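To whoever is on call:

I kicked off a structure prediction for a single chain this morning and the downstream step that reads the tokens threw a length-mismatch warning. I double-checked the sequence; it's 314 residues and nothing unusual in it as far as I can see. Pasting both halves so you can look.
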Amino acid sequence: MEIKALRYFTAVAETLHFGEAAMRLHIAQPVLSQTIARLEKELGTTLLNRTTRKVELTDAGAYLNREARRVLADVDSMFAGVRNIAGGSAGIIRIGFTGTTGFAQLARIKQAVGEALPNITLEVHTDLLTPAQLERIRNGQLDMGILRGHTSDPELETYPLGTEKLVAAMPEGHRLASVEGELALKEFEEEHFIAFGDPRSNVNARAAASCHAAGFTPHIAHTAPGTAGLLALVAAGAGVAFIPESVQALRPQGVVFKSVPETLPTDLALVTRAGASSPVVKHVIEALVDNDVVSADADNPDRPNNKQIPVTQA
């Protein structure tokens, strides 16, 4: 049974007149009559009672008319959905977030995409460190990611998103926890530090660079695979850590956060595959640029006159 046959049948069922239905369908009446006859033969029953004066639906024809309209509505919706996806105005975007960037960035991204592209759904993957995100973007498991730092990988494009300050996390009862106001980096020279376990961590690199600028090398006493483990170690009194200020939104028990203005901020960026063929990805990026969520120009090493930014991937 062809979709075209159902469309022809519903047109006749609505008008109860072969001539009017043929005109509406822009086909010759004999073609319409032959199509309906083949449909009845295929189903093995009469769908329309025809006389020289009128056309009437049989019980089987009335049932088929109801079901055919439902099926055709679903088919039309399917075709429209395919066209929207092909055109980039509908679909699913798989987006990753590193650490706690979701707290600060997800709402802005969702609002921008929701207003410009209401038929696009965000499939959110949270608490993915940058190396894991980059790997998933390269192999197609993620369409884009919000991560720290930039990458010079020619397979990827980086859209600057802003920066985030580092703050000091320490256990309650720490000697610096009760100090009023901001702290100086030098105050941490003798401290034991807790860092992220991945050696490529951008947060680790910025924290270490901050300490080096203050004239000392941080002593890394413990490492943790992610933010939750790091905060647990801090709360347990295993050491202190310099971490992005968005972590404060977690309000972890037993941890005190203090501002340290001398720390170097981390760069935030949206990363996607270079030359992404998906129109959905292109439209999402356009929406984020139009709403000033990301910078308009990607840091793409293959583009002329575009500055290269060497970065530790993390």
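Update from on-call: the warning came from a stale cache, not from the record. Cleared it. Sanity check on the structure: Residues 90 and 119 are 5 Å apart (CA to CA).
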